[in-house]
Design goal:
- The chain has 416 residues and is an alpha/beta fold.
- It contains 15 helices and 10 strands.
- Strand 4 (109-113), helix 3 (120-137) and strand 5 form a beta-alpha-beta unit.
């Protein structure tokens, strides 16, 4: 077999990395090489960008060190028994790619994950070496996100946090039962311990920053300044949305996660089968992100979000906030001229920016419907749930056909 070129490896390992979520460069320290001998920054703009819903610019080289793996996780396309095309970078090859891409203004940083080769410790050593060499040998000041291996020696994860802006320890699946069934080499206890170790080290770093007493200099490396995140596979097991949301809440509160990422599972077709792969549950993934947003930023409790679910599953046709509002119509209509911020945040169609605009505008005048049209992006959606100085929804709020106003129209099925 012909030896793979660097570009061949990149094609394989960049494609293999598409199943890793947790790819957003936010929350870290401001670093720049301007006026110094280093290269890169955490804020620079590259050529190829993706933008998160909150406006963050993401331009990272997202790649695996290798897609070889000794583990047999049933939901993973790179599991040991899979017949996918395999490749492996050496640390020096990956360092060269990162630097070359940055100098060409393609990227603003690196997102690095890997399959497990030889052992968790050996693989983690390789990942750490990439980050170390970029930082120390090449003075790279761009963003680095490392997917860490829970089974690796804690000292290696400690080293990783000194070079990376953000660390990820994947929770994998919502429940311990599912994990033992789908990923027999992995342990929920081991994963949670690794997360706890990262959290404790981040907390210790914050204490050091506050006191300044344990730092030798202002240039001392900080531990994972952008925090930690995790990824959960959605749809591979029989976990309900309730299981997923409750697990996420524990991760945010117990481990201070910056973000829990949901990854819709796409079943891998049998190579001998003529059947097409099943479509991934992207709508379900989207609804879970919306629910996640509600309890993180909109003041909803998880039991409130789940109060409108059926058998623990969110409504796929309408978003969770609207689903809650339809279930709890006694809350509405809300007078936008007198309601509190927390009440306004519960109105379907009102985002945090719209609420802030409303609060600011009503200090100067009593808001009417025309004012609302100027301030809110989706007035049609909010009308059944609000009152203004010249608008009241009347019986619309209690209409039995209100849900049909928002749900997508039924589709004609085909027999062919």
């Amino acid at each position: 077999m012909a030896k793979r070129t660097l570009i061949d490896k990149l094609a394989i390992l960049a494609d293999a990395a598409k199943y890793d979520a947790s790819c957003a460069s936010s929350g870290t320290n401001t670093r720049s090489s301007l006026g110094s001998s280093g290269i890169g920054s955490t804020e620079g703009m590259g050529i190829c960008h993706a933008y998160a819903p909150d406006g963050r610019c993401i331009s990272l080289l997202k790649v695996l060190l290798t897609n070889f793996c000794i583990f047999e996780c049933r939901y993973c396309i790179n599991r040991s028994s899979s017949n996918v095309e395999r490749a492996r970078f050496t640390p020096s090859e990956l360092i060269t790619l990162t630097l070359d891409f940055y100098k060409r203004n393609y990227i603003e940083g690196l997102f690095l994950s890997s399959g497990i080769i030889q052992s968790p410790d050996y693989t983690m050593e390789q990942l750490v070496e990439v980050a170390r060499a970029l930082r120390e040998d090449h003075s790279f000041r761009g963003y680095i996100h490392l997917k860490t291996i829970a089974e690796a020696d804690p000292l290696l994860i400690e080293q990783a946090g000194l070079y990376a802006d953000r660390l990820s320890v994947n929770i994998e699946l919502p429940t311990e039962t599912s994990l033992s069934s789908f990923a027999p080499e992995k342990s929920g206890q081991t994963i949670r311990k690794a997360m706890a170790d990262v959290r404790l080290r981040i907390d210790a770093q914050k204490g050091e920053d506050a006191s300044k007493s344990h730092r030798k200099s202002n240039n001392a490396p900080k531990f994972a300044p952008a925090g930690q995140s995790t990824q959960m596979i959605i749809g591979a097991d029989k976990s309900t949305d309730a299981d997923i949301i409750e697990t996420s809440e524990r991760l945010y509160s117990g481990y201070k996660m910056r973000r829990v990422y949901y990854s819709a599972y796409s079943p891998i077709p049998d190579a001998s089968s003529d059947l097409p792969p099943i479509s991934p549950p992207l709508i379900r993934e989207h609804r879970l992100y919306q629910a996640d947003w509600l309890f993180r930023f909109y003041g909803f409790r998880t039991d409130e979000i789940l109060s409108s679910s059926i058998n623990g599953m969110l409504d796929l046709e309408i978003d969770p906030k609207l689903s809650w509002a339809l279930k709890h119509r006694e809350w509405f209509p809300i007078d936008i001229n007198h309601a509190s911020k927390s009440q306004l945040m519960r109105v379907p169609g009102f985002g945090s920016r719209t609420v802030e605009k409303l609060l600011k505008a009503r200090r100067l005048t009593r808001l009417n419907l025309q004012d609302l049209i100027k301030l809110a992006p989706s007035v049609k959606k909010v009308l059944p749930f609000i009152e203004t100085s010249d608008w009241s929804p009347g019986h619309l709020t209690d209409s039995e056909h209100l849900r049909a106003r928002y749900a997508p129209p039924p589709e004609q099925l085909t027999l062919i």
